[in-house]
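Format notes (please read before filing issues)

Several people have asked whether sequences and structure tokens are stored in separate files. They are not. Every record keeps both together, in the order shown below: the sequence lines, then the token lines. Line labels are part of the format and must not be stripped during preprocessing.
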Amino acid sequence: MNADIRSNALLDSPYFDLAGHIGNRAYCLHNVVYAHATEETAALLDIGVKDLLATPMPSPTVASPKGVAFNIRQSDPKNGLGMFAARNISAGGIIVVERPILVAPYLIALESHRESELFTALLRRLSPETVARFMSLANCKPESECDMVEGIVRTNAIAITLDVPDVPHPELATHRGIFLNISRCNHSCGPNAKWQWDPVTFALSLVALRPIRAGQEITVAYIAPTYSRAERRTQLKSMYNFSCRCEFCARPEAVTYRSDAARSELRAFWAADHLPPFEEWCLDATMSDYALIEAHKRAVALIESEGLEVLDYGKHLDAIAMGYGALRDVEQFRAWTWRARDCRPMDPAGSRVMQNWITDPETFPVWGWRTSLKTFPQD
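Then the structure lines:
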């Protein structure tokens, strides 16, 4: 168990100690307090984590769009229900902002209670209408593995992080949240939306990664999408008991071979030895003016061809804009900064700063670095 937790990138706990974790846990059942009485969340929390929550919880920093942006209806016969766009949604658009109805630790360190008993106790703290909607969620787990309530949680849980106290053997920051609407999103290996969690306001935003047409299904990635099709299908079958048939997995073998290679390249991009640090590129006159820019442009092209805007897309756009800024290329700097700005729907302050740079490029902090620093004599 220790090795599994320490090696799990999602949990980010390289020094985890199971015995110390269990020995320092004290849980409570807690109903999160919101300003609006219509919202309800029942949570099983470490007492130290519960004490860090605001009461009442502040309103989300972004709101669901006005009007109906989605509807829940039948996907294909094997996928059950799914979420579909009720109107055209632009890239970066907020589809819905939602609070969880259930929250529990990723690892519940109680040997005296089964998880199904704890989840059932949480459901008793919710309204009958909410419980009925919970019970209508999908369950991919067989009866031989767990009961229905636990199966629904394990099928639909979304990883969220909560603040944890700075104490020896703290609770894991990663928790599980159940969301009645967002949990309806089906998987795609080239998702058109992503989750974005705000622990301060206890709200999960569903954000469009690229334009979504009215009537199109809204999808997210259940697993890391950079692995090969065979590896993705194996993981999804093990975790969710289905064989992926999304448009990216249904490609012909020849296309899949190229797709697997592209995803492998993207997975290794940031560790690539050929990618010099920005300042090194600025100072090295022997290096091509477009070395960094072209590397990030290739990544952008691969991302767009594979539908993987969920993978650091904004970081690549930032890097390209930064490169053109260092080269004093006003036209390209403005074009790429504009694209980078549109990738920040949840960062209005950052968007305003980037708009200022578009208006006056010379206010960009590294404007002209490549053209000036590379002319300095080197020690």
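For reference, the curators noted about this record: The two ends are 52 Å apart (CA to CA). Residues 29 and 44 are 5 Å apart (CA to CA).
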